[in-house]
Sequence to fold (243 residues):
Amino acid sequence: MLDGIKRWLGGGATATDAPWGEVVPWAESHQYRHRAVPERGFVVDGRLGTTAWRLEWGPAQRPYIGGQELRIRSEMGLSPDLQAVLLSRQLHEQLERTVYEQSVEGTRTRIDNQTPPEMRWIVMFERLDDGDMAGLGKRWVAAGSQRGWLRQWLEGALATSLQSLQVEPGVPVVLMIGRGRLMLRTALDEPDVPRLQVWLRLFESAMREARRVANEHAVAPSTGLHSTVWGQSALPGDEHRGR
Fold:
């Protein structure tokens, strides 16, 4: 695969000859910006209305995702006090076991300072009851700092999108809000366009519903997008990315 990427970037092949070459015409057809990251993956920038989002595919940044990872994120200007996480049920059970094992081994300091926020939040915040999950409780677990906000977010269109999502139970999926940013993470070995579209539709549904709830709570979202290189600042506030 890497040889193919090098040939493509070196001019020995066309963009559509690359392992994920179909992403290029898809992005262009939607007026998205796309960029290959040598020997790692690619980035696609787009907008939902006036709000920018970024889709990245490359090596996993989380230990619970093996191989390649799809990340989609957007700076939405949500309240900095809002922290919320929605996880696929099997992933929640896995992370809960990991946190418990680390705790009983006396590594609580490492858990507090180095563990990804989604792992901390499932311990810090109370979970929504199944009755507050709009029928999502069999497949998903949700927790957050503002239960009412989280419950409203998971109602309506986002609940419908999650219910219709076709994904194997063992595939890790995280949808979270923190530092004003919306983020989706999942494992994705092959970034074919149909699967990218599935995840992007889900993410945009989450964006719309977050904006709806924010407006109901009188929170004015902000937008913006900065230049990036892979693994460095991409959207406003990205200096805290991955924390």
